[in-house]
Specification:
The structure is a homodimer of 632-residue chains. Chain A is 33% helix and 18% strand. Chain A is built from 14 helices and 23 strands. Chain A is globular.
Chain lengths: 632, 632
């Protein structure tokens, strides 16, 4: 094993690719939209999640394992260990980000409770293998053992890249060795029901420099899709065991499973130089973005199986858009950005960050959306404050869920967020995401340091000041696809900037400022006519922020609103208002008629829209993103 | 008990109401759209259903019960007895309709296998109460015991009204007496999970003239809605035990349960002169038709729980529109027509007949749709010919289902169909449904006999010839709400006829002809803008027939079609064609854009639409009723 040492806190560190990532040591976010959320994560969300997992007994399961209290006292679902590991991953990144002694102590305290549970061979799970429990590896479909080990390894990867080798990292290596021994070429010919081990092993291969982990991940990927898992009611597509990974056309089945699998496959393809696999994953991702993704970047159209629907089956009201699927799609998109250098993957990362990752947590950090619907038809019940909730039955965020994968996923994403901000390619630095802060990159030509000032996404100006730079280097800025008319000012020149990575013609020198202006005038979005559930409807966006109409702004149920796009969008004091006709309460005896579909409105007025990520923070409400347009 | 004797074969015989029904002895259908289907039912469907129930062992369960072979040998679901009874009801009506000796023999042969299973107290069920089975009445939520007894009683009601009293009718009376004793005022304070016993007891009260059965039905209805059934995952609304029947605003939960319950409540309200209850049912029905019903008359927007959705939640692709829910809605609508005399209930009957009842069976009578979707997105698998299918996973009709309530429901509806054709009110005869044949009514003033000639719904002319009539009588014709511009010719005069029951000013005399002309030019239908899943889309109807676009006519998947309503609808050789733009295969990387939503079409052409009831008879296909319209 090569030395395991911090690697600038890179959550993803591929061996090759068009772009190289920077880590959380290289990029610091100072305030603004995301800085506030990172602070809320550090001060509230991580503790909130840990408190709930103590309360629900998910952490105590490890103590019980040590004391011989299992299976009698075990609480939580079969995958609850994984949420403890995801929390540890969040804590590791947070410790890496700020050096917080409290975070370090939290990590070590959790590690101390978990490590004694590891069995001599490396296996670790509170649910299986003890007297009175199901035997180890007796349920590949639903047991989640390899999924849990995957998250254990990911937590260790974060720890290794922020703090270096320790007992927890060593334990994860032992766990990975156990997986390789148990499931290697000559081992059990199986695949896990829920992918995650693949991406984890690939990253551990990077951390350790040992390709056997990458090869094991590759083996899991190539075994998949041949019907090794049981044919369940929802079909083997549920866990992507219906079609070999290389042959699949598009993402299908359980959306989180699909995204984690694709992210792992991208890692393996890059590290093993498996171009065929990479091309397959790129094709699947492109078709999935084009046909099976909501305007928010959300994925999963069906509550049944938390699954993708068919092409263009994207009903707003049934939008499951699980927060974790969004995070999985960021994992995949960021990998494909690095592999291909194509800027629209960073567009996807941005879209999901602002409309899924930012939407899940409540403004106070004490509640989360598990599913992120685009049309909340009824107000629903208020989630209880003191007990865990079912997954998706309210217009308000619940403090905790029976299945609570999302809060810890948000926490680890926020803590490691700055790694998404910039990439390098030779002596070129690309800025991918715009947040105030500092970017440092050690290019072959020398060290670059930029200060970034911006009120984005509320303001469209992003100002870069070059604090340090070599003579020859290049700066590229990502122009989002929506930002037609963007301009870049450098020196005395103003350049028009088309969507994509725009390379500045001259190397900015120390002391230079570069100013990017992204036009933020709000715009209507029209859906592809194949998306049958929103024909004749429009959405409103401003910059990366999709907006929504909430009943608390409309004053009545949102089903009664029809929008008049011809009246445009008014922007005032940072608020967006649209002209809405309010239909009378339903009274027609039969709702299908010849002639114009518009009822005579009882009122026309300007109504405020709220950024989608902010909805549901002002009490129970109905809400919709897509608004029927007045028929011509 | 008063004499039980045939009553002109009336399936519904309320004690009072604005209109009186005619029976299958009074009205004969001779050919045409429905005559062909009645013949197919008699010659194919009834035998098909009986053969499958023999094959699946559902009939043999009764033999096993006699031989002591239960529970070991029992096959089928807990409610399989009911399908045998629904088949017997169909056979009874069919025997009554034609006097067929074969049908009479079939009825008697089935009765002979069933009657020995009845226990001395009147109870009868193959699933409960024997050693090794669950105890009698131990599962009100899912046991379906009262549901099965209800269908037993309904079969006996049909037998009594077509053949008079026999051993099977007596057995049903004993079963009803058992129910009254077991669940009366001083009996078990319970309600059944699936309504049906209510409507059955109410009809038995009419057959026997004994109000105790009506009062027992009333008791079940008033007990309902107070949480006597368990609170299941889908909530007590699933079986309408959430809100008292008198207090409910709208239909909700399982659609078949909701309709059967409402039909039974309407019977009880009419027979016990319970105006409050009748008003409640009328209000619920009107709100359900206005907000929770598909353009086909289908009900049930959710596969989960086979249930109604919220108001205006009517997604075409998720349309469950169970065939049995449609038949339940006919049962309810016909009762409300009789109770109130309001013609739009007959419009609803017509809509459901042509678009649900006619849609379920295959053209050859050997397959059935269980669910009636409005947008079939994928071709799906071909249902196996030799084994029962799941409920809703193909674009083709399956020969039989694991739950196969629909085929026998279609069979009993077709066999008794002529009872829906006309009503009387004093000396007025209303014709409600237009089919070629003969209508005989004994009015207080004397006997009326009309011959009806029509090619409806393909042709809009309906010609009535008065064969017999008293001096003073009145003829009223129902003008459907869609038939603006209808006219009536009588003698030398032509009257414009507005929607509703139109009373002819003069009494037609013997030898007179009256000619009704319903304008059948095809029309676009626009949905209420609150129906969010079809905004900006149109449907096409001609007379009562909703039409659909099938991929076998389009030549590619229907998701690629956009209709141009401005180009109108072309009618030629009985076919309807619309101007369609065919979109290119999807290729945009991101399907949400500023600007016009229409992709540049690859082709524009006229495409034939198929009547919805006829779709899926030409091999696997995708299909949709609502078509996106070109945006202005």
């Amino acid at each position: 094993m090569t030395t395991i040492a911090p690697d600038n806190g890179r959550p993803i560190a591929p061996r090759s690719g068009a772009l190289r990532p920077l880590g959380i040591d290289d990029v610091t976010i100072t305030g603004g939209f995301w800085g506030e959320r990172q602070e809320l994560n550090a001060s509230v969300m991580i503790a909130h999640a840990q408190d709930w997992m103590e309360r629900e007994g998910w952490i105590a399961n490890f103590d019980l394992a040590v004391r011989g209290g299992l299976p009698q006292g075990r609480r939580g679902r079969e995958f609850s260990d994984s949420d403890v590991y995801k929390l540890m991953e969040a804590i590791a990144w947070e410790h890496g980000r700020t050096g917080s002694a409290d975070m370090n102590a939290r990590f070590e305290a959790l590690a101390a409770r978990i490590l004694p549970v590891q069995e001599p061979g490396g296996y670790l799970n509170t649910m299986f293998g003890r007297p009175g429990q199901q035997p180890r590896y007796s349920d590949f479909e639903w047991g989640h053992e390899l999924y849990c080990l995957g998250h254990l390894i990911q937590a260790a990867v974060a720890r290794a890249r922020t703090a270096g080798r320790d007992a927890f990292v060593d334990a994860a290596v032992r766990a990975a060795d156990h997986v390789c021994a148990e499931f290697g070429e000559s081992g059990r010919d199986k695949v896990p029901g829920h992918p995650e081990i693949e991406v984890a092993l690939a990253e551990l291969g990077r951390v350790t420099g040992d390709e056997k982990y990458t090869r094991q991940a590759s083996l899991f990927i190539d075994r998949r899709g041949h019907g090794r898992l049981a044919d369940i009611e929802w079909g083997r597509s549920y866990y992507q065991d219906d079609v070999p990974v290389r042959d699949a056309e598009v993402s299908r089945g359980h959306a989180v499973r699909a995204m984690y699998l694709a992210a792992g496959a991208a890692d393996v393809a890059v590290d093993l130089d498996d171009r065929e696999l990479l091309d397959a994953i790129i094709g699947q991702a492109r078709r999935t973005f084009a046909r099976r993704t909501y305007v928010t970047g959300g994925m999963g159209s069906r509550h049944t199986g938390e699954a993708f629907g068919e092409d263009f089956e994207l009903p707003p009201d049934r939008s499951y858009s699980e927060t974790c699927a969004g995070i999985g799609a960021i994992m995949l998109s960021q990998r494909l950005l690095l592999a291909t250098g194509e800027a629209d993957y960073a567009d996807m990362v941005e879209r999901i960050l602002y409309n899924i990752v930012a939407t899940s947590p409540a403004e106070d950090g004490h509640g989360f959306f598990y599913a992120n619907t685009l049309y909340r038809r009824t107000v629903g019940d208020v989630p209880p404050a003191d007990i865990a909730s079912p997954r998706a039955d309210s217009s308000l965020r619940a403090p905790w869920y029976h299945v609570s994968c999302c809060p810890t996923n948000v926490a680890r994403t926020l803590a490691s967020l700055s790694s998404l901000v910039a990439t390098t390619a030779g002596d070129t630095l690309q800025v991918e995401q715009y947040m105030p802060g500092r970017i440092v990159a050690e290019l072959p030509a020398g060290r670059v340091e930029l200060h970034v000032e911006t009120g984005y996404p509320h303001e469209g100006t992003i100002r870069f000041t070059v604090v340090n730079a070599p003579d020859r280097w290049r700066l590229a800025l990502r122009i989002p696809a929506w930002a037609a008319g963007a301009t870049i000012d450098h020196g005395s020149r103003t350049f028009p900037a088309e969507p994509g990575h725009v390379l500045l013609p001259a190397s900015p020198a120390v002391g230079d400022t570069v100013e990017l202006t992204l036009p933020l005038q709000p715009r209507f979005l029209h859906p592809d006519p194949r998306i049958d559930t929103v024909t004749g409807q429009v959405a409103v966006a401003r910059g990366p922020l999709v907006h929504a109409l909430e009943s608390v702004d409309l004053g009545c149920d949102v089903s009664r609103a029809v929008i008049d796009p011809a009246a445009g969008i008014e922007e005032r004091d940072g608020d967006i208002r649209v002209s809405v006709r309010i239909l009378p309460e339903a009274n027609a005896p039969w709702p299908y008629r010849p002639g114009s579909p518009d009822s005579e409105p009882v009122e026309k007025r300007l109504v405020r829209l709220t950024p989608y990520h902010a909805w549901g923070n002002r009490g129970p409400a109905t809400m919709r993103v897509w608004l029927p347009a007045v028929q011509g």
